[in-house]
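Try this one yourself first.
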């Protein structure tokens, strides 16, 4: 069983064996994460130095404003010619709303970009770009979808993780003036993929006295995705629990609010809870929390997960994005 005692700062976790299965066809020098349909045939992988990264959020959706994701895919090396380019193969896994109010999950066919030496692909609206590629997106997904992007770089000179990079920026019009407000983040190298637990510190001052709101009226969104670095192809369910770390509270060190559950996340699927205070019925006097994301029934054969926190200013809607940290006791990533 897992126990948490924050009064004495002790956190104990049950040991769940970490098992990362990597196909021998990829060779010892590669870090290629596979999920769903293979990013490329194994027969073409043996001679290529490759690795995968995953963008945790890619979207185009109209809510309080039009939100869209700008994307950069870069080859940071001197490798790459017209005859032998560095290849970036990518697959968008996304949820699209349906007219009846339900949501459907899809993956695009695998697409590819050729990159020359010190080359970059940029788009200010990646989902809209996908919509220009025939047959790639389901109808309506170019206007409203929310997902992740798996990118595999091939033909690199090495695979340390810096050679090919992907950066994203999700933004909308500034509601208080000109320009945009945004969050920006790099694609994950899966170092924080957890087979049991993720953790983060979050802040919510929506109900705080004015003296505590010098940094703004803050609210928190949390997203969790199934990274499935083992390539199991399984869904995973995740519980979110919140522990009060507000100084002086009688509930300091105790679990507060409701447990939130994300059920049956598909490999590559991300889902987000908006406004954690409201979603989990957090008490009004709780302004700081630790959040734990626990895989339900975690075992050695469970898919892995990663997560992020986005803390937003209620006045400007400006956001601060950071990844949750793996809290497994038996190794991460």
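Now uncover the answer:
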């Amino acid at each position: 069983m897992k126990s948490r005692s924050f009064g004495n700062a002790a956190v104990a976790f049950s040991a769940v064996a970490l098992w990362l299965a990597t196909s021998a066809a990829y060779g010892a020098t590669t870090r290629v994460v596979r999920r769903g349909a293979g990013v490329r045939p194994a027969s073409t992988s043996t001679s290529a130095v490759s690795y995968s990264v995953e963008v945790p959020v890619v979207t185009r959706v109209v809510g309080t404003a039009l939100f869209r994701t700008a994307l950069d895919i870069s080859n940071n090396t001197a490798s790459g010619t017209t005859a032998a380019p560095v290849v970036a193969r990518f697959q968008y896994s996304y949820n699209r709303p349906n007219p009846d109010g339900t949501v459907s999950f899809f993956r695009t066919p695998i697409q590819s970009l050729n990159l020359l030496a010190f080359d970059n692909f940029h788009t200010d609206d990646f989902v809209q770009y996908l919509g220009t590629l025939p047959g790639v997106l389901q109808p309506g997904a170019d206007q409203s979808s929310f997902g992740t992007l798996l990118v595999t770089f091939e033909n690199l000179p090495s695979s340390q993780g810096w050679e090919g990079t992907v950066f994203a920026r999700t933004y909308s019009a500034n509601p208080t003036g000109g320009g945009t407000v945004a969050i920006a983040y790099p694609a994950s190298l899966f170092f924080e993929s957890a087979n049991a637990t993720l953790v983060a510190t979050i802040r919510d001052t929506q109900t705080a006295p004015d003296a505590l709101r010098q940094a703004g009226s803050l609210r928190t969104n949390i997203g969790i995705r199934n990274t499935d670095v083992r390539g199991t192809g399984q869904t995973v369910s995740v519980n979110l629990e919140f522990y009060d770390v507000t100084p002086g509270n009688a509930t300091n060190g105790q679990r507060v609010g409701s447990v939130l559950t994300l059920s049956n996340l598909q490999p590559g699927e991300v889902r987000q809870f908006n406004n954690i205070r409201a979603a989990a019925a957090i008490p009004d006097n709780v302004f700081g929390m630790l959040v734990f994301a626990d895989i339900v029934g975690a075992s050695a054969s469970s898919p892995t997960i990663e997560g992020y926190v986005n803390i937003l200013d209620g006045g400007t809607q400006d956001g601060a994005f950071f990844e949750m940290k793996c809290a497994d006791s038996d190794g991460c990533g």
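Discussion: The first helix runs from residue 126 to 131. Residues 29 and 49 are 7 Å apart (CA to CA).
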